[in-house]
Amino acid sequence: MIGFDKVLHFISGFLIYSIVYAVCGYLSIDVSPLLIVMIVLFIGIAKEIFDYFNNGDVEVADVIATVVGGIAGLLIFTYY
Questions:
Q1: Domain encompassing residue 64
Q2: Is residue 53 one of the residues assigned to a domain?
Q3: What's residue 55's pLDDT?
């Protein structure tokens, strides 16, 4: 079973993708969807580094859940 923490990471990845996509569209910045997923990955890794230095729970699965949420955003915004 997927933990609630992973669901929050998935939602966060989706929201990060959505916000970056919307801001780039609003500002007429032509950006690759793959670059936005890379931004989601960077933010997911940065969050885990923050957790490491603040006695948080560090898990690779959290980064994966965040990126999967970003990929879900890519699929929805690209193919819908």
A1: 16-21+32-79
A2: yes
A3: 87
Alpha-carbon distances, residue 68 vs 26, 30, 47, 64, 80 (angstroms):
24, 23, 15, 6, 17
Residues listed for the chain? 80
Q: Is residue 41 in a domain?
A: yes
Closest listed residue to residue 66, CA positions, set 3, 1, 4, 8: 8
From the CB of residue 8, how many other CB atoms can be counted at a distance below 10 Å?
A: 14
pTM over 0.85: yes
Domain count, the chain: 1
Match 């929201």 to its residue by tokens. 15
Determine which helix (DSSP H) or strand (DSSP E) holds 16, and give its type and residue range.
helix 4-26
